[in-house]
Write a structure and sequence with these properties.
Blueprint: H1 2-9, H2 20-45, H3 49-52, H4 64-85, H5 95-126, H6 133-144, H7 146-149, H8 152-184, E1 188-191, H9 196-206, E2 213-221, E3 224-229, H10 234-237, H11 250-257, E4 265-266, E5 270-281, E6 286-293, E7 299-307, E8 310-317, E9 325-333, E10 342-353, E11 356-357, H12 360-363, E12 366-368, E13 381-387, E14 390-396, E15 404-408, E16 415-420, E17 428-429, E18 433-441, E19 452-455, H13 456-462, E20 470-476, H14 482-490, E21 497-498, H15 499-507, H16 510-514, H17 516-553, H18 558-594, H19 614-641
Parallel strand pairs: 3-19, 16-18
Antiparallel strand pairs: 1-20, 1-21, 2-3, 2-20, 4-9, 5-8, 5-10, 6-7, 6-9, 9-15, 10-11, 10-14, 12-15, 13-14, 16-19, 17-18
């Protein structure tokens, strides 16, 4: 078996030796088996002859040593559980951590066994004055037949160990998937040699619908690390494990971080705008400067004006906007873009691009940008209002020379962020822009739990990224069209980091391969438990036939006896299944939350989380109940088949 597993999981031809430790473990197993056999024989021989030849097994009190051993095991499990649970920070595994699953499994089996017997005894006494014959017979059998009740112990222990082993394997596998997603962020991650703004524009030009590409900036700012993403594309492009944000799925994260409404884009060659100028200033006229991001990702401006007092229509060329320019702001100045004293109001109306009406230019809503840092940036916009397709702006520079700054209302004043678990909650980012956390994440691309996640459009509206601190990537899905990848290659973007390769590397780690043994343990323990259950049932059949024959003699119907036997075993085995699964889940939770389980304790690395798939556990529990119910029904049928009156005259 060792050679087969080594050939399947490790390097082919790797020698597998039978070490001294293996020899001593084998000797220990043999000695333990002999000890158990000797104790069993001693227990049988110590019984009085009257009990051995009796046709009915009477319940008796447990011996002193039996009670001491039970209490010691349960107390040890409680002590180890409490010590591990309150141990504090994660640490390397020690003897207590290794013993905890076994102690919990045995303790759960003991408690379940005693609880089943006590509950059956109570129900049997309660139902003596009632008409439930089947329930009474089943509960009486559980209360009186000790060897039947003790079936719960090994099955509970086996299920607890199996659930723990499978849970540890699943937790480690989920952590490797989370770590790979942290390192890559999507199916493919292309390092980009130019600034984030250009990468953002490139992805929108090559993939205008946002199905395949997303630009990301990993900004190692001295004031706090940030991951700047194209939030509307996050759910479609990024790989986002569900364990990162248990209270939010990736679609909700994308929605929470995205702008309030679609951005304002100008596509064409000439912009025309009518302005009603009622502003008193130092000069006769005002100039409008529209801040844009060119398709190349470079910043630019469209200057239109000057507008004299009264209603004036002006136009201006847009030489860079054939494929679309993103509007990020609007400035109102004196002629020549000079700051000036301003008081009054103006109205912007009838905006057209190449003769086509553009009502969204004003209907997107605008507000004064008071957070941006400018040389002449004193607050001067006292109010804005949109009526139909007309934007009215109230100005008051309060005696100072200013540039009146406005930004579109697709971005809120307080920016939403997703906070990493290990990050310090900020109140502002960048150039003192206010932020509010919408949730906490266990990890995020590139910086793990030690950063915050923010939308690119929101952050860059009033802030600028520092290229020297920002690593830029273009994330892509594995099904990205080949023509899109070819266009990326034309910009020198050709060497992606592959998520599957990173995951394969993590899966081939020696620790990850060793965890495969947990699956082997799960299968072996369950097989041994079921084999022991089958043997126990087979041994009990003769005694059960005598009991069934006694019940037939007093007139109990055949169907009622079968139902009673099935009910008895369904109750016992169901108790074992539920107790075992709960004990295994508890052991997994405690061990995983207090151990590092072999990963480097790095601030950029996600932590390992307990993994208990409720759906899978429910399915396993349903299958287990179905199988055990079939076994119980089969045992009932076998019992009643041989339950004849002559059985009572047979020598036990």
């Amino acid at each position: 078996a060792g050679r087969g597993l080594a050939a399947a999981w490790l390097v082919p031809g790797l020698p597998v030796t039978f070490g001294l430790a293996s020899f001593w473990f084998a000797i220990g197993v043999v000695m333990a088996s002999l000890l158990v056999a000797a104790l069993a024989v001693r227990s049988v021989l110590s019984e009085p002859l009257s009990l051995q030849i009796s046709g009915v097994r009477r319940p008796g009190r447990s011996g002193r040593w039996t009670i001491i051993v039970r209490c010691a095991l349960i107390a040890a499990a409680v002590v180890v559980l409490a010590g591990t649970l309150f141990s504090g920070t994660p640490a390397k595994p020690d003897a207590a951590d290794l013993l905890l699953p076994i102690l919990l499994a045995v303790a759960a089996g003991l408690v379940s066994t005693l609880a089943a017997a006590a509950a059956a005894n109570w129900y049997a006494k309660r139902s003596t004055r009632r008409s439930g014959v089947v329930g009474y017979v089943a509960s009486r059998a559980i209360a009186r037949r000790r060897e039947g009740t003790w079936v719960v112990l090994p099955l509970t222990a086996a299920l607890a160990i199996a659930v723990f082993a499978a849970g540890i394997y699943s937790s480690a596998a989920n952590w490797r998937a989370s770590d790979a997603a942290t390192m890559v962020g999507a199916d493919l991650a292309f390092p980009v040699p130019f600034p984030l703004l250009q990468a953002f524009s490139l992805t929108h030009r090559l993939d205008p619908n946002g199905h395949s590409l997303m630009a990301v900036g990993a900004a190692a700012d001295p004031d706090g690390a940030m991951v700047i993403v194209d939030a509307p594309r996050l759910a479609r492009v990024a790989v986002w494990p569900g364990s990162w944000t248990s209270d939010l799925d990736v679609a909700q994260v994308s929605e929470e971080l995205s702008p309030l409404r679609p951005p304002l884009n100008l596509t064409g060659r000439r912009l025309t705008m009518t302005v009603d100028n009622n502003v008193d200033g130092e000069s006769d006229g005002i100039l409008l400067s529209i801040d844009i991001v060119k398709p190349s990702g470079e910043l630019g401006h469209i200057y239109i004006g000057p507008y004299s007092s009264g209603r004036t229509t002006r136009s201006a060329p847009m030489p860079f906007c054939d494929t679309g320019c993103l509007v990020t702001g609007l400035s109102i100045t004196g002629p020549g873009t000079l700051p000036q004293l301003m008081q009054g109001s103006l109205a912007i109306r009838d905006v057209t691009v190449d003769g086509a009406s553009m009502p969204y230019f004003t209907r997107i809503d605008w507000r004064g940008d008071f957070d941006a840092s400018y040389v002449y940036g004193a607050p001067s916009v006292t109010g804005t209002r949109v009526v139909g397709s007309t934007l009215s702006v109230e100005l008051d520079s309060q005696g100072e020379q200013v540039e009146a700054m406005l930004i579109p209302e697709d971005v809120p004043e307080v920016l939403p962020i997703l906070l990493g678990r290990a990050a310090t909650p900020p109140t502002v980012v960048g150039d003192d822009t206010s932020v509010r956390p919408v949730g906490t994440t266990e990890s995020m691309p590139f910086f793990g739990p030690a950063a915050l996640l923010i939308d690119h459009t929101m952050f860059t509206r009033s802030n600028r990224t520092t290229d020297a601190w920002t690593d830029v990537y273009i994330l892509a899905r594995s099904d990205t069209p080949q023509e899109v990848l070819t266009e990326l290659a034309a910009y020198g973007i050709t060497q992606p980091i592959d998520l599957q390769q990173v995951r394969h590397t993590l899966d081939q780690d020696a620790y990850a391969l060793a965890l495969n043994l947990y699956l082997v343990v799960t299968v072996i323990v369950l097989v041994l438990a079921l084999a022991g259950l089958a043997v126990t049932m087979a041994v009990q059949i003769p005694a059960r036939r005598r009991d069934a024959a006694s019940l037939r003699v007093v007139g109990l119907p055949r169907r009622s006896i079968v139902t009673a036997v099935a009910t008895e075993f369904a109750a016992l085995l169901g108790t074992a299944a539920v107790s075992g699964i709960l004990a295994g889940a508890l052991a997994q939770y405690v061990v995983v939350r207090t151990l590092t389980l072999g990963y480097a304790d790095d601030i950029l690395t996600p932590r390992i989380l307990p993994s208990l798939d409720i759906t899978a556990v429910s399915a396993v529990l349903a299958v287990a109940f179905a199988v055990l119910l079939c076994l119980a029904t089969l045992l009932g049928s076998l019992t009643i088949r041989g339950a004849r009156t002559s059985t009572l005259r047979e020598t036990p």
